[in-house]
Amino acid sequence: MLKSTSAHSRQTLVMIRTNLSSLSRRRAISASMALSVALVVCVLAGFLSMAKGFETALASAGSPSVAVLLGGGTNQETGSDIPAAVIRTLDAMTGAREAFVRAEARLEGSRQRIQEIGAEIAEKFETEPPALTRIAGIDAEAALPAARDVEDRLEGLKRERERLGGVNLRADEELTEVQAQFDGMVSERDDLVEAIKKLRTGIGALNREGRERLLASFVTVNGNFQKLFTTLFGGGTAELQLVESDDPLEAGLDILARPPGKKPQTLSLLSGGEQALTAIALIFAVFLTNPAPICVLDEVDAPLDDANVERYCDLLDEMAATTDTRFVVITHNPITMSRMNRLFGVTMAERGVSTLVSVDLGRAERLIAAE
Questions:
Q1: DSSP-assigned letter for residue 349
Q2: How far from 361 is each of 154, 282, 332, CA to CA, in Å?
Q3: How far apart are CA 286 and CA 266, in angstroms?
Q4: Of 135, 179, 277, 315, whose CB is crowded by the most CB atoms within 10 A?
Q5: pLDDT string in tens for the chain (371-residue length)
Q6: How many Å apart are CA 362 and CA 164, to the nearest integer?
Q7: Neighbouring C-beta atoms of residue 168, cutoff 10 Å
Q8: Are 182 and 188 in contact (CB under 8 A)?
């Protein structure tokens, strides 16, 4: 029986050594468990050497059998406690097996937990666990921050996120749409700014050319006005003045007239006849600067006396001779009508019947002269 026990102990020792080498490769077994297993191996090694010595002694004594009481009896020849040591060793081996099984269970649970944590990290952060230190801004070689500080910061971030309200799942799409609208508006704004610059440049060019042309025309009209005023009044002076602004495009126009024997004064201080003659001189001065095909004069001679009507008609004759303008004069003054080339009138020979009458005065004068 002792031989079978020794053989069984050897097998057990080999198995424990194999398991120990396997356990040393498992990172999940603690250092204390490895130390306990090492102690058990040492005990088994001592027991194995003792069993070998005891077997040798039995063989030399020639005793075929030995009565061993597993319940704690003693050897009758030597009186030693070898059976009790065997029992303690077997109990230690049983405890080691149980510890090994528990360690394996914890190791497997740890592996499963690691896999679950890895899957959770991949789901939440869309990355592998080794990349978490980079995302968290933690140096892999430096010491980890205190767990309490990390938890407090995490809770603060969660409360801040809750204050922000619900998450808009279409925020990215809305951002793209708003960005496209913004880019379009920026492009339109740039086009408008460029158009405004071109428009201002054009307006500036037009204003410059307008000032030049206006000043040139003003000088010409002012010279013609002075000559015509002297012709109509038989003397005196008059001139046009730009007032209220240095810019000719924004300035007003004032007429300063001095009829013969009077002081220079504005148009509003002249009499009705003088105002009419001054206005006629100004109109004809513009026509001399830029003649028109037709000029209609409606009752212009109404405020004039006979002498001024004659001057007015002399001026019409001169204008008709020097320009290509045809004058249509509406008048009731017989002097003016007698000075025209052709008369058009409406007469009512019968009550309720109007008749248009046309008289060629020039032809009538030639007929009279022929007779």
A1: E
A2: 113, 29, 16
A3: 19
A4: 277
A5: 434 444 444 554 445 445 444 444 444 334 334 333 333 334 344 444 544 444 454 444 443 433 333 334 444 444 444 567 777 888 888 888 888 889 889 889 888 888 888 888 788 777 787 777 777 777 767 777 787 888 888 888 888 888 877 777 888 899 999 999 999 999 999 999 999 999 999 999 999 999 999 899 899 999 999 998 888 888 888 888 888 888 888 888 888 888 888 887 877 888 888 888 888 888 888 888 888 888 888 888 888 888 888 888 888 888 888 888 888 899 888 898 888 888 888 888 788 888 888 888 777 777 777 76
A6: 100
A7: 10
A8: no
Contact between 242 and 252 (Cβ < 8 Å): yes
Please tell me whether the overall predicted TM-score, pTM, comes out greater than 0.70 for this model: no
Q: Structure tokens of 56?
A: 């040798």
Please tell me the number of Cα atoms within 13 Å of 367 on its side-chain side.
6
- The two tokens of residue 119 are 């899957």
CATH level 2 (architecture), domain 217-340: 3-Layer(aba) Sandwich (3.40)
Boundaries of every domain in the chain: 2-138, 217-340
Buried b / exposed e over 332-361, threshold 16 CB at 10 Å, is ebeebeebbeeeeeeeeeeeeeeeeeeeee
